[in-house]
Design goal:
Tetracycline Repressor, domain 2; transcription cis-regulatory region binding; DNA-binding transcription factor activity
């Protein structure tokens, strides 16, 4: 009697595939724009079969929601790490200006992806929850160094600054960004914070 071969266990052979697909979607959005996002392009960027993208994300909106959530989580994690690394008596205006400029230089592609996805939430209500959670987390982190109202105001200012700076051909001088943040914090561009 021939032995019966052991049955292969079913299960994920590539447990990181879903994450790679989300990261690939962010890359496609950053490099080619929202109109270029297709399951086929994302599958090629993630180096997975086309069926994998539709298995994990039945619609492009599902994929967009996952990408927006990932971009927001990464942005907030970076901001939290930044805030935790600051000395207790750090000059917040200077530190925030450096954070803004790093966000549009070293991590420019992440920032561009975040704003592409953020803008989509305007017309796709199911994406708004992730965008609002991003705003709330930003205000919460900034409130640790200030107060709730000032933290919210700084969050709004940073969103606007990041959008303007990422759209510009060249980054503004750190001093210009710092002056805006300092004015928001103190009402005067000459005061130290």
């Amino acid at each position: 009697m021939t032995p019966v071969p052991a049955r292969r266990q079913r299960g994920p052979t590539d447990p990181d595939r879903r994450d790679r697909i989300v990261e690939a979607a962010i890359v496609v959005l950053t490099e080619q724009g929202v109109s270029a996002l297709t399951h086929r392009r994302v599958a090629a960027a993630a180096e997975v079969p086309l069926g994998s993208t539709t298995y994990h994300f039945a619609t492009l909106d599902d994929l967009l929601a996952a990408a927006l959530t990932r971009a927001a989580e990464r942005s907030v994690a970076a901001l939290r790490a930044w805030e935790e690394s600051l000395d207790p008596d750090a000059d917040i205006a200077r530190a925030l200006s450096e954070f803004v400029l790093r966000s549009v230089s070293e991590t420019r592609s992440d920032t561009m992806a975040e704003y592409n996805l953020y803008a989509l939430a305007l017309h796709r209500p199911h994406l708004r929850e992730a965008a609002v959670a991003w705003d709330n987390a930003l205000a919460e982190v900034l409130s640790r160094r200030t107060d709730p109202v000032t933290g919210h105001m700084l969050g709004v200012l940073l969103c606007g600054l990041l959008m303007q700076v990422v759209l510009a051909d060249e980054a503004p001088a750190r001093e210009s960004v710092e002056a805006l943040i300092r004015r928001a914090l103190t009402g005067s561009s000459d005061s130290a914070v």
